[in-house]
Design brief:
- This protein has 4 helices and 4 strands.
- It is mainly α.
- It has 2 domains: about 60 residues; about 40 residues.
- The strands form 2 sheets. It has a two-stranded antiparallel sheet with strand order 1-2.
- Strand 3 and strand 4 form a beta hairpin.
- It is rod-shaped and about 105 Å long.
- The termini are far apart.
- Bound molecules: zinc ion (ZN) (2 copies).
- One zinc ion (ZN) binds next to strand 4 and helix 2.
Length: about 110
């Protein structure tokens, strides 16, 4: 394994021997090109990519709350109109049914 690493060259410096392998992109790098990040040796590109990802995760953190709020607003609006619509639809039917029943009762 170590002999395999020694035979590798740095991805950025073709003339330099690789000192570490980036676990994220699986490329070999010299000691200068790797950065210790969260107790792992990563190449500069992956550290930058990881930092960008973490930043995005932080930005997205407030996102579900906004979506939940919007959905709750839509649900409340829907519930409001549903109850009003249901109330309007259900109101005439009992009187109509009673009228029909009364008509039938009157005929008999
Ligand atoms: Zn990398
Ligand atoms: Zn290098």
């Amino acid at each position: 394994m170590s002999t395999d690493l020694a035979r590798q060259r740095c991805y950025n410096h073709a003339h330099r021997e690789a000192a570490a392998r980036c676990p994220a992109c699986r490329r070999y790098y010299c000691r200068e090109c790797v950065i210790e990040h969260e107790s792992r040796l990563l190449c500069a590109a992956c550290v930058a990519a990881g930092a960008a990802r973490e930043e995005r995760r932080e930005k997205r953190h407030g996102w579900p709350g906004a979506v939940a709020g919007a959905m709750l607003g839509v649900f409340l609006a829907w519930a409001f109109f549903f109850i009003i619509g249901w109330g309007l639809l259900s109101l005439p039917s009992p009187t109509h049914a009673t009228e029909v029943w009364n008509e039938r009762a009157a005929h008999d």
